[in-house]
Amino acid sequence: MRRPAPRRPWRRGLLAAALAVVLLAGYYYVRHKVQLNRYARRAWATFTKNGLTGREKTPLLAGYSVHGIDVSAYQGRIDWAVVARNRVRFAFIKASEGATLRDPRFARNWREARKAGVLCGAYHYFQPNRDGQVQANLFARTVPLAPGDLPPVLDVEAANFHDVAVMRREVARWLRLVEAHYGVRPILYSNHSFYQRHLAGHFDDYPLWLAHYEVARPKMARSKWIIWQHSDEAYVPGIRGVVDFNVFQGNFADLQALRMPAPPTAPKLPATARTRRVK
User: Fold this and answer.
1) Which among 157, 179, 232, 233 is annotated as catalytic?
2) 17, 89, 105, 120: which is deepest, by most CB within 10 A?
3) CA neighbor of 57 nearest in space, from 190, 204, 242
4) Which residues have CB under 8 Å from 199's CB, separation 6+?
5) Contacts of 179 (CB under 8 A, 6+ apart)
């Protein structure tokens, strides 16, 4: 007589668990597919970076006439002359981060971008667990802003803080000290979700540079922001790999009006007054 095959109840449990994992993964992907797709594209771009030529090009965003980028050491060596020939009108260059870190490519990027005729500004990546005054001092020692440059920028997006009130206090300190040092109001940079949760309503007097991806337009009134970072995975000839792409809300003359002004000069005395003073 043939003996019946032994039952293996663990197989059903394994199949049920596998099905549950697939369903949960599918649900998670549908819910977060925009972000997951961005991570996948970013990982692929990083993996294939050695195969890029530096001539790849992302189309400019329609409806805007002034386009710009922001860069750091992550972009490697940039051919700024090529960048400038591809309608990049402005660039914000990372100068410093936290209390001690200086971007190792800042000096070269600052020099070469200006030489190529790109309107330049510099930014500091804010670490919320470090003193705002120390961070402001580091930026001021690093960045030689001059009349004609764009205002300084504070990048606030790191969420490694425990007390939002303390974070806001240190941000306000950085902004106040840097404004006093350079004589121009800084620009505040943040992404949409971080800004709405932690900064909205507290820094409305500062121009806002808003990062918001995968949307047709920012989910914020146009009156609230001046620059929109619409992509963090663009290609610009002259840069080998991805770079952040931005548009300015306005024309180039409006952007130029944001530049740091020349210091006031003392009024010249009439010739007769000078003569009297000599006597």
Assistant:
1) 157
2) 120
3) 242
4) 156, 168, 171, 188, 190
5) 185, 186
227 alpha carbon, distance to own chain's centre: 10
Question: Which of these, 83, 108, 92, lies nearest to 258 by C-alpha position?
Answer: 92
Amino acid letter for position 37: N
Does 157 participate in catalysis according to the annotation?
yes
CB 234 within 8 A of CB 58: yes
Taking the C-alpha atoms of residue 32 and residue 271, their distance in angstroms, rounded to an integer, is 73
Q: Is residue 126 within a helix (H) or strand (E), and if so which, with residue range?
A: none
Closest CA to 174 of 210, 209, 124: 124
CA 149 to chain centre: 17
Give 96-139 pLDDT, tens digit per residue: 999 999 999 999 999 999 999 999 999 999 999 999 999 999 99
Contact call for residues 138 and 154 (beta carbons, < 8 A): no
Share of the chain above pLDDT 70, in %: 81
Q: Which of 70, 155, 170, 244 is catalytic?
A: 70
SS3 93: strand
Total residues found in the chain within this entry: 279
Specify the DSSP element, H or E, that contains 94: strand 88-97
Cβ neighbours around 4 below 10 Å, total: 6
Q: What angle do CA 107, 259, 77 make, to 5 degrees?
A: 25
> pLDDT category, 12, cuts 50, 70, 90?
confident
**40 burial via Cβ count (<10 Å: 0-12, 13-18, 19+):** exposed
Listed in sequence order, the residues at least 6 apart from 191 whose beta carbon sits closer than 8 Å to its beta carbon are 157, 210, 211, 212
* Cβ atoms of residues 23 and 203 within 8 Å: no
Residue 80 phi/psi, 5-degree rounding, is -70, -30
**Sign (positive or negative) of CA dihedral 141, 186, 230, 59:** negative
